[in-house]
Design goal:
The chain is mainly β. It has helices spanning 2-14, 30-34, 48-51, 226-230, 284-296; strands spanning 63-78, 89-91, 95-106, 113-120, 125-128, 141-156, 161-178, 182-200, 204-211, 214-224, 235-244, 247-254, 260-269, 276-281, 304-308, 314-324, 329-338, 356-368, 371-387, 404-420. A 14-stranded antiparallel barrel has the order 1-3-4-6-7-8-9-12-13-16-17-18-19-20.
């Protein structure tokens, strides 16, 4: 078992786990994603390790799931009349990303205790704008890659109710925040916790899953470019942090007959934890260079970089259905409404800030009585964002160069193999 876990971790660290359409990647298994990931109250395969670890106590036997998503993204920008550089436009580099997942569950016979392990990448982003974009001094390339390791223990309270608690370990690597002035990169890790419950009634189920926020302290390097290098700074070690938000998922599932499963989830994500990115530099020369440049553009002379975010908490809605049309095959479909947490004043091209709707379909086939192949597809419709409220200060570096219309979309292809052992 130890060798299996080490091999899975190596696969994740070697992969690119990013998503240009947002900060949170909800599609963490093909079957659940086909049902719009409205799976908190379902959780009846190995992906219960992520969606609701309490579901382990209702699973048949021990299970292993391996799979991943291929995400194809496209983003573009066109200035509007509130941008002083109008007319201008820019296209971000099209993205092709792989986001793997792996889940294991173990429940000894006649035991009221079970265990699960999830390894996935639920948070990540990448935007790659050309240096010639009007907002090049604010953003050109941003990336957050992370891997989450989540062991949990579940307990059977009664025939109908189970609960679970666990630990969430997040490792952020290849974190980058670049613009025409400097390149920032780093990595780090942090720990959080999760707790869940699942109630299985006659033809219906109810589930709740909570995950705490995780603060990841990042250590890395800053490399000066252009104007910043000219005023005296060249390189420096740099430190910052990023906080992945706490979240609550509440789900209800209903089976009107043996063929249909209907499900709904409401997801609260506390993005208020992402209030600012504060970068400090160890090199005195670099701090002087940053302070000088900030003084030239009217900012406080601090020798550090502060990027305000001031995100708000959001509530997303997920609706899903599964139709078992014979003993070996199932089809699925779903819909997701996912609002942006980003306000108009602090919006940045570094993190796409558009409301999204996802339309999902899926297919499942039992290859053998113990092995199931699940496939899924999601079209991500990213609403156009007409940005007009970027600030006009500080003098010399107006944020209004970020004003314009942002467009994009994404396609997600998913596959998972679930094995009962």
């Amino acid at each position: 078992m130890k060798r299996v876990i080490i091999a899975l971790l190596a696969m994740f660290i070697a992969s690119t786990s990013v998503y240009a359409g947002g900060f949170f990647v909800g599609e963490m298994a093909a079957r659940s994603a086909g049902m719009a990931s409205a799976f908190t109250a379902v959780s009846d395969d190995a992906s219960a390790a992520w969606h609701n670890p309490a579901g382990v106590m209702f699973l048949e036997g021990n299970q292993l799931m391996l799979g991943g998503d291929v995400i194809l993204t496209k983003n573009s920008f066109t200035t509007n009349t509130s941008n002083p550089l109008n007319p201008a436009s820019a296209d971000a580099a099209n993205g092709t990303f792989f986001v793997p997942h792996a889940y294991m569950t173990y429940k000894p016979e006649d035991s009221r205790v079970g265990f699960s392990l999830g390894i996935n990448s639920p948070f990540g982003l990448e935007t790659d704008w050309p240096s010639t974009a009007p907002f090049g001094n604010a953003n050109t390339f941003s990336r957050i890659n992370m891997v989450m390791l989540n062991p949990s223990v579940a307990y059977q309270v009664s025939d109908n109710l189970s609960i679970a608690v666990g630990i969430d370990y997040a490792n952020a690597f290849k974190v980058e925040l670049n613009n025409n002035l400097q390149d920032l990169s780093g990595n780090g890790d942090g720990v959080g916790a999760n707790a869940s419950l699942l109630y299985k009634g006659d033809g219906f189920s109810f589930g709740v899953n909570y995950r705490s926020r995780i603060k990841v302290k990042l250590a890395g390097n800053a490399i000066a470019k252009s104007t910043l290098a000219l005023v005296g700074g060249t390189t420096s070690t740099a430190n910052t942090s990023v906080t992945f938000p706490d979240q609550v998922n509440v789900g209800l599932a209903f089976a009107p007959n043996d063929q249909w499963m209907l499900s709904a989830d409401v997801d609260w994500v506390n993005w208020k934890s992402f209030d600012a990115i504060n970068v400090t530099y160890s090199s005195a020369a670099y701090r002087t260079a940053v302070s000088t440049l900030q003084g030239l553009v009217g900012s406080p002379v601090t020798g550090s970089t502060t990027i305000p975010e001031n995100w708000k908490a959001t509530v997303a809605f997920r609706l899903g259905a599964e139709w078992k049309y014979n003993d070996r095959m199932r089809v699925r479909f779903g819909f997701i409404y996912d609002p942006t947490p980003i306000n108009a004043v602090d919006f940045s091209p570094a993190i796409p800030g558009n409301d999204r709707q996802l339309y999902t379909i899926g297919y499942g086939y039992d290859l053998t009585p113990a092995t199931t192949l699940d496939l899924g597809y999601a079209y991500v419709h990213i609403n156009n964002r007409n940005q007009t409220q970027s600030p006009t200060t500080p003098p010399g570096a107006p944020g209004t160069v970020k004003n314009g219309t942002y467009k994009g979309n994404a396609h997600i292809l998913m596959a998972s193999l679930n094995y009962l052992y």
